[in-house]
From TrEMBL:
<protein>
    <recommendedName>
        <fullName>UDP-glucose 4-epimerase</fullName>
        <ecNumber>5.1.3.2</ecNumber>
    </recommendedName>
</protein>
<keyword id="KW-0520">NAD</keyword>
<comment type="subunit">
    <text>Homodimer.</text>
</comment>
<comment type="pathway">
    <text>Carbohydrate metabolism; galactose metabolism.</text>
</comment>
<comment type="similarity">
    <text>Belongs to the NAD(P)-dependent epimerase/dehydratase family.</text>
</comment>
<dbReference type="GO" id="GO:0003978">
    <property type="term" value="F:UDP-glucose 4-epimerase activity"/>
</dbReference>
<keyword id="KW-0119">Carbohydrate metabolism</keyword>
<dbReference type="InterPro" id="IPR005886">
    <property type="entry name" value="UDP_G4E"/>
</dbReference>
<dbReference type="Pfam" id="PF01370">
    <property type="entry name" value="Epimerase"/>
</dbReference>
<dbReference type="GO" id="GO:0033499">
    <property type="term" value="P:galactose catabolic process via UDP-galactose, Leloir pathway"/>
</dbReference>
<keyword id="KW-0413">Isomerase</keyword>
<dbReference type="InterPro" id="IPR001509">
    <property type="entry name" value="Epimerase_deHydtase"/>
</dbReference>
<feature type="domain" description="NAD-dependent epimerase/dehydratase">
    <location>
        <begin position="5"/>
        <end position="253"/>
    </location>
</feature>
<dbReference type="InterPro" id="IPR036291">
    <property type="entry name" value="NAD(P)-bd_dom_sf"/>
</dbReference>
């Protein structure tokens, strides 16, 4: 019988790519999503169960129906800027919602949990390469909410033996090379899709958020990872748990950082079009530099982030941008 995996946020950007990867690996991905930011059109690789993380009865129903071997938990609000303005939204949905999901999983006897956390849990640690042992000092409510969920998972392991693989993502970019699914947020806040929209004339010039950071060109540095590499790591993490290897935290990044200006330069080269941009103020909550120490996932999971170069990430995002869209 095909093994089911509950994928919360399966109608979203990363979750939909994870469903495709799970399906390819022989699992049945069951999307659990309230469609607050996701797209029903993105649910293409397994069943859809509409529901909200805060609705325990609905969660219990779905666990009982599918008897999943694991949960992959992507559903979350994830905008740093918004989290600074509306922290309650982040604590309620991300933390209380995850707690409800974790309780439901344990009650159903589903003891394998793959969680999407973030490098934002590390905070602003000037010019340090961040590995899994680095201290976590989030500087925004989004990062704080994700760190709290990591703590909940640790406590549930101590109390009930819940096994979790926690992935701390750096900047996820790119899309399915076949453009079946892709990145489409409403509203969009991420650098690469905003830039592609600006290139295509679909919105005004990109604003560079801050040019006075202490970096070689004054703009923030991020470590970009291809969404297909990222979800491959999730399948490896799932197998790690199924093999009984126990709870573990892994960073998912490449160890190489690129500034906003470097991303703009690559986009110009990939699309062969000019990137209209203006220089603006810093965005509250942004860290100067976030670069992953990514050895652990490579060594222990056997992960190979081969597609995580800017040319491929921007190229695949551009392909999706030209062909793909979802309708509400
Ligand atoms: N950024 C920017 N202009 C934008 C959006 C983002 O200059 O319109 C910068 C942002 O300050 C950060 C980088 O691009 O340094 C990546 O931001 P994004 O929102 O894509 O991801 P985050 O790092 O916040 O997770």
């Amino acid at each position: 019988m095909t093994k089911c995996v509950i994928v919360t946020g399966g109608a979203g950007y990363i979750g939909s790519h994870a469903c495709k990867a799970l399906r390819a690996a022989g699992y049945e991905p069951v999307t659990f999503d309230n469609l607050s930011t996701g797209w029903e059109d993105a649910v293409k690789f397994g069943p859809f169960e509409k529901g909200d993380l805060l609705d325990r009865a609905r969660l219990d129903e779905v666990f009982a129906k599918y008897n999943p071997v694991a949960v992959m938990h992507f559903a979350a609000f994830s905008q740093v800027g918004e989290s600074m303005k509306d922290p309650a939204k982040y604590w309620r949905n991300n933390v209380i919602g995850s707690l409800t999901l974790i309780e439901a999983a344990v009650a159903a006897g589903c003891m394998n949990f793959v969680f999407s956390s973030t490098c934002a849990t590390y905070g602003d640690q000037d010019n340090v390469v961040l590995d899994e042992e680095s201290v976590q000092l989030p500087i925004n409510s989004y990062g704080a909410s994700k760190r709290a969920i990591e703590d909940i998972l640790e406590n549930f392991e101590q109390a009930f033996g819940l096994n979790s693989v926690i992935f701390r993502y750096f900047n996820v970019a790119g899309g399915d090379p076949e453009a079946e699914v892709g990145e489409f947020h409403q509203p969009e806040t991420h650098l690469i899709p905003l830039m592609l929209d600006a290139i295509a004339g679909k919105r005004d010039a990109l604003t560079i958020f801050g040019t006075d950071y202490v970096t070689p060109d004054g703009t923030c540095i991020r470590d970009y990872v291809h969404v297909c590499d990222l979800v491959d790591a999730h399948v490896l993490g799932l197998k790690w748990l199924e093999d009984g290897k126990g709870s573990r935290v892994f960073n998912l990044g490449t160890g190489k950082g690129f500034s906003v200006r470097e991303v703009i330069d690559h986009s110009r080269a990939v699309t062969n079009m000019e990137v209209p941009y203006v220089e603006g103020d810093r965005r509250p909550g942004d860290c100067t530099k976030l670069v992953s120490g990514s050895e652990r996932a490579i060594k222990e999971l056997g992960w190979s982030p081969d597609r995580s170069n800017l040319t491929e990430m921007i190229g695949d995002a551009w392909k999706w941008h030209q062909t793909g869209h979802y309708e509400k």
